[in-house]
Amino acid sequence: MSTPGPAATSAPAARYRLVSAAGSVDVPRLDEHQQQVVDHAGGPLLVLAGPGTGKTTTLVEAIVDRIERRGARPDQVLALTFSRKASEQLRDRVTARLGRTMTSSLSSTFHSFAYGLVRRYSPAELYAAPLRLLSAPEQDVVLQELLTDAPESVRWPESLRAAVGTRGFAREVQTVIARARERGLDPDQLVELGRAEGVPEFEAAGLFLTQYLDVLGDQAAIDYPDLIARGVIEAERHRDELREQFRHVFVDEYQDTDPSQVALLRALAGEGRDLVVVGDPDQSIYGFRGADVRGILEFPTDFTTTDGSPAPVVALGTTRRFGSRLLRASRQVAASIGVTGAIPAEAYERFRHPEPAANVYGRGIPMVK
Ligand SMILES: Nc1ncnc2c1ncn2[C@@H]1O[C@H](COP(=O)(O)OP(=O)(O)OP(=O)(O)O)[C@@H](O)[C@H]1O
Ligand SMILES: [Mg+2]
Prior knowledge:
The protein is of the alpha/beta class. It has two domains: 32-119 and 250-356, P-loop containing nucleotide triphosphate hydrolases (Rossmann fold), CATH 3.40.50.300; 132-219, no CATH class. It is 45% helix and 9% strand. It has 15 helices and ten strands. The protein has helices at 32-39, 55-68, 84-98, 110-121, 136-147, 167-182, 187-197, 200-218, 224-237, 239-245, 259-269, 294-297, 299-302, 324-335, 345-352, and strands at residues 44-48, 77-81, 107-109, 132-133, 221-222, 248-251, 274-279, 313-315, 318-319, 355-356. A six-stranded parallel beta sheet has the order 3-2-6-7-1-8. It is globular. Bound molecules: adenosine-5'-triphosphate and magnesium ion. Magnesium ion binds next to helix 2.
């Protein structure tokens, strides 16, 4: 977390990056659907597209258009991604296209953006020491210590008693509490859920979560799910200020969002604000970490326009990385994931049946044996 997000300070320090000289960067000739995304007048927009259809390219062009043609200041643009590498690449591509350096960081991972929010808004006296992000091994140590049998330890249901203290059990507990927090449940709500549904394991997990968060608080530490959860609280609390600051929000790989990240976006860019997200529901890779593929399919109804209608959807229909045989094979596998959520049929069809673009290997005609 050495790179704080754009929100880390109210007056971000100047940041310079070396970029190649303007003019050496190719300006892509966008296809009809890519252009539609760039020309989107404002408000929420979902761009649905398969691998190699130019999603990130389109996002870069849309950002460049906001800044160059529509006069947005770079510090009013926020592009969120899931990995630091993706965030750096996006920033470098936009910087290269603009042909100038920027003083704002423009793109950020969800986690580093949330970290910036927490740092910016948390009263200093709340934490004895500067807030520190807990690494995965450190988190394991805290969990293991809390799971050892001590008088103050949580009493787990009889059926689980034999497993307590094993590594596998610690992992299970960690998963349950992480999933609960990604879904916005606090410890009391997890206890409540356990009682209401008659699941004593959840009840015990809720009590355990209280202890776990207390220990983190004592150490002025924070873990990844907690980072987003606190980011959401701060974003909701300072919604108007943040919306004024970040007028154009973009998300790459939207299929990897979990519900707490969607909540963060809602605070930043809900109610019909300018929010362009691109993603491929077939490529959801963070399922194990709580990402919910339904998130992308429900985007149109989660983020409605100012008049309350569902967000429009554009599907990119030209794939540029492989020919028709590979394309057909990959779509056949993916087509078995037959959920469409709130996606209009026409956009879904184009997403499902993209055309290969002509490339150095030809038009993607099947190879002759
Ligand atoms: N309109 C275009 N004309 C020519 N080439 C393009 C166009 N759009 C994208 N490309 C090229 O196609 C390739 C894939 O583009 P890009 O990385 O933007 O796709 P993506 O959909 O984000 O891929 P991934 O699924 O890996 O995230 C890149 O080499 C890019 O330069
Ligand atoms: Mg991409």
